[in-house]
Design a protein that fits this description.
Blueprint (H helix, E strand, L loop, with lengths): L1 H11 L5 H15 L3 E8 L2 E7 L4 H9 L3 E2 L6 H5 L4 E3 L2 H4 L4 H10 L3 E9 L2 E10 L7 H46 L5 H15 L5 E6 L2 E7 L4 H5 L1
Antiparallel strand pairs: 1-2, 1-6, 2-3, 4-5, 5-6, 7-8
Length: about 240
């Protein structure tokens, strides 16, 4: 049921992977009886917190403050980079020399951790981590369950990437076609073309404002712009 629920979220959110991460964190935590579950992404070899289930305000703040952080800073970072599952049976022992992490663990009140990597084409692009109040390792069937959720997270990330790339390509093609239509319909006046270019550029790049200038005899002339405020436009 949990797997089907996550697949429904993937299907209903093709352009945004965040709801999928949140659903995976919630389902993992419930099914594995964890204290808290988090989904992380690896970006430029750094761990970023993407979603997590909450414990206490102080513990949640400590968790959020500990990211992003370099994957290489963790003793198990190389294992994760190599696509290996990592058990930390007792953080009080394994993190004894890392006071910042140990303080975060105590604030969140967990003793053991399990890390399962998100793998795309053999490369680690994220992890799912589950914590428990008790020390000890996790059962093999719980590891397999997390690996299933990790596979779904990778599918969601890839689907979102492809969807957004296709959407962006379509938007570019549409904008180009629109500008070509303006050129064709205004052969004797270039002003509408400048205005169409400013509007399309601003929308596609997510700009605050876009301008088109012409350089005539070494002098810049303002030909088109997208408005902001009357006073700023006048300046």
């Amino acid at each position: 049921t949990a797997t089907a629920d996550i697949l429904k979220v993937i299907a209903s959110s093709p352009s945004d992977v965040q709801p999928v991460f949140e659903a995976i964190a919630a389902s993992s935590n419930r099914l594995i009886a964890g204290l808290s579950t988090a989904v992380h992404r690896v970006i430029d070899d750094a761990l970023h917190l993407a979603a997590f289930t909450r414990t206490t305000p102080a513990g949640d703040a400590a968790l959020q403050a500990s990211f992003p952080r370099p994957l290489s800073s963790a003793a198990w970072g190389e294992n994760i980079r190599n696509g290996e599952t990592v058990h930390i049976p007792d953080v009080e022992i394994e993190w004894a020399g890392q006071p910042t992490l140990l303080e975060m663990a105590r604030l969140r009140r967990f003793r053991s951790l399990l890390f399962v990597p998100l793998l795309r084409h053999g490369t680690t692009i994220g992890i799912i981590s589950v914590s428990r109040k008790e020390a000890g390792t996790f059962a093999p069937h719980h590891v397999l369950l997390l690996q299933t959720f990790a596979d779904q997270a990778v599918i969601a990330i890839e689907n979102t990437r492809l969807f957004n790339e296709t959407k962006e390509a379509l938007e570019r093609q549409t904008a180009t076609a629109d500008i070509l239509k303006v050129i064709a319909s205004s052969p004797s006046d270039i002003q509408p073309v400048f205005e169409a270019i400013a509007t399309s550029a601003n929308r596609l790049v997510g700009g605050f404002s876009s301008t088109v200038f012409r350089f005539i005899d070494g002098v810049a002339h303002l030909k088109a712009f997208t408005p902001t405020t009357p006073a700023a436009d006048q300046v």
